[in-house]
Amino acid sequence: MKNRSIQADTIELVLGLRFSLVVCCLVFPFTERVIQAQRVQTRGTGTQSSRNTTVLSPAARAAMDAAVAQLQQGALAEAERAARQAVLTAPQSAVAHNLLGVVLDRAGRAEEGYVEFTKATKLDPNFVSALNNSARYLAEHGQTKQAIAQFERVLKLDPGHVQAHYNLGSLYRDAGEFVKAAEHFSQARKAEPDDPQLALAFLSVAYRADRSAEADAAAALVERVASDDARGLFTLATAIAQGGQYDHAARLFARVNELTPHTFEVLYNLGIALYNIDRNDEAAKYLAEAADLDPRPAETHLRLGLIASARNDWANAITEFKHVLDRDAKNASYHYLLGREYFRVGYWDGAISEYTSAVKLEPKQAAYVLARADAYYRKGDWSSSAQDFDLAAALDPSRSDIEYWQGYAHRAAGDFDLARDFLQKFLLKNPDNVDALASLGYVAIEQGRLEDAEAPIKQALKLDPNNVPVLYDYARLALKERNFAEAAKRLQQVLANSPSYTAAHYQLFLAYTRLKQTELAQAELTEFKRLDALEKDSTKERMADEKIRIQQMLNQLPQ
User: Fold this and answer.
1) Residue 240 near residue 251, CB atoms below 8 Å
2) Which of 178, 177, 198, 176 is nearest to 188 (CA)?
3) Are 250 and 278 in contact (CB under 8 A)?
4) Confidence (pTM)
């Protein structure tokens, strides 16, 4: 913003509201716009002047002129002495109090400055500069609502007040009200449409306020002004990235990387921009280079871990997430991510351990409890799984599938009464869920409630006629009902769909035995023994292989 020339009459100073933009842990220095314009106008002209009618003596005017001159030179102590002399000489002058407030604020004594701004507004309730300055103090001290109200009052008195529009834009941006922020920044730009810093402020919200065409024009202005200045281009890329325009941001960050190669901040942000447009191979390259330059920030390793995970590169994903936790072990989501990678490779104990750490850090986060419940289930710890599903349901009863998982886990744990209750609740909302119907039928068979088992099993088969596990339970039901001929018929259907279904051969052996069909029974028993032996050997081999695989996986990771 252009500086106004100093004149010998009424002096009105307006302080600006500092702001900065942050996009995903950016640490490169950001050019801040700090509006601190000296507004000096002849008394009685324009709305910026105080309407306080105090007649200033020559001594008071001389003191003010001296204070302004010292202020411009950065001689704050001398400026304060001159400003206090002006107030002493003209105690009823709103302008003098406003001037003293500005000097005190610049000297880092904001609270004392605010007292002077308040005195100025009491002497002249419509003194725009003092109102704006006191509003800025309120904003910088967390009194956002009061600040907004006072800035709005400034605009009622002076609709074109650039600083008020700018400051309101900053406040509304910080509050997430991007439409309002964009409008105020746009109004501020009308006074100085070629100001690149005002254009940057507008850019910080314009894309999110659906003003893309104006934002593109503002970006073109800033890029033209920045030319080959790396800092200016980096700042522009930051603002564009904040608006979600990652493709454009990536191009700008790449250009900055050419101008200032091998800089952590540039490489990191280039990697993040590329990550956000799914160019993960390139993102990984730049993020890895950034991590080599400065391995300390957890965020770099986090993104590398996410990219590795998306590539199904479990070894690097686990390595990077462990690096993240080395730097920030108190973040529950990081433990969850590492647990998820362990889960994906079947390392249940590792997954449970990390999920447990996440739960300890955020005990009310149902997602972490659900993840641990699933890991317990896969491990075969049915009781712990059921307990966790119940806990997750208490934490988040709104989940539509939670009763299904509670029922399934309690069924596996042998808690059939609880399993039945949860499955029935789930089926009230999801009456055509085949798995839930089949599980409800299974539970009824296990409890000996044969009359209750038939309806859900038949409904499941109606929905999925060739579902082998459901056909098998339907055959078991016939055996329990001592209808051996029907059981044999149903088991033959099971084996027609799945000839190696070991348990079905054994059940068919029982059915043929009851039907006194000795040869068929013996054939089924022989086949059962063969398949069972193979299955046991296979299970032993699989468990041994799994143990070796997990150990090899752990050995590949850095200690």
Assistant:
1) no
2) 198
3) no
4) 0.70
Distances from the Cα of 280 to the Cα of 270, 323, 556, angstroms: 11, 19, 24
CA distance 198 to 186: 9
Among 434, 406, 401, residue whose Cα is nearest residue 420: 406
Axis crossing angle, helix 212-226 with helix 230-242, rounded to the nearest 10: 170
Torsion angle (degrees, nearest 10) of CA 372, 377, 383, 388 = 30
Q: Enumerate the β-bridge partners of residue 39.
A: 12
Domains, the chain: 1-209 (1.25.40.10), 466-559 (1.25.40.10)
Quick one: DSSP state of residue 38? Answer: E
Max Cα separation, the chain?
A: 128
Token output for 463: 């929905």
Tens digit of pLDDT for each residue in 80-138?
Answer: 999 999 999 999 999 999 999 999 999 999 999 999 999 999 999 999 999 999 999 99
Which residues have C-beta within 8 Å of that of residue 436, sequence separation ≥ 6?
404, 407, 423, 426, 427, 430
pLDDT digits (tens, 9 = 90+) for 468-504: 999 999 999 999 999 999 999 999 999 999 999 999 9
Residue 199 has what DSSP assignment? H
Residues in the chain, total: 559
Question: Given the structure tokens 């509006």, which residue do they identify?
Answer: 35
Measured distance CA(202)–CA(183) in Å, rounded: 9
Instruction: Measure the CA–CA gap between 218 and 225, rounded to whole angstroms.
Output: 11
Q: Which amino acid is at 523?
A: A
φ and ψ of 17, to 5 deg: -100, 120
Q: Measuring CA to CA, which residue among 495, 490, 487, 486 is closest to residue 523?
A: 495
